[in-house]
Amino acid sequence: MKIETIEGLYEIIRERKEHYEEGSYTCYLFEKGLDKILKKCGEECTEMVIAAKNQDRTELSNEMSDLIYHMLVLMVEAGLTLDDVGVILEERRQKTGNLKKFHVVDKNS
């Protein structure tokens, strides 16, 4: 996946929020508001999980693409930029070997 693709899609989505375009699905989502955007994110996430469970690579790629698109719509709606998320992702990328220690409960005590 090229970062230019994500950046380009984000810019198109941002423009659709600022300038209504007749027949645009993105404009429709913004018009319907946060609840509709969140519903679509949830639907696409569930469909992605099912495709992964079914081990269908083509469907998984499609559903991941749908989820990423709807997440970008949510980012624009929430006023987040790619840099807002990118900073956090970079921080996580820099962490290596940071397996969390899980608390083990002794069920015999």
From TrEMBL:
The gene is hisE. It catalyses: 1-(5-phospho-beta-D-ribosyl)-ATP + H2O = 1-(5-phospho-beta-D-ribosyl)-5'-AMP + diphosphate + H(+). Pfam families: PRA-PH (PF01503). It comes from the Bacteria. InterPro entries: HisE, PRib-ATP_PPHydrolase-like. This is Phosphoribosyl-ATP pyrophosphatase. GO terms for biological process: L-histidine biosynthetic process. It comes from Massiliimalia timonensis. Pathway: Amino-acid biosynthesis; L-histidine biosynthesis; L-histidine from 5-phospho-alpha-D-ribose 1-diphosphate: step 2/9.
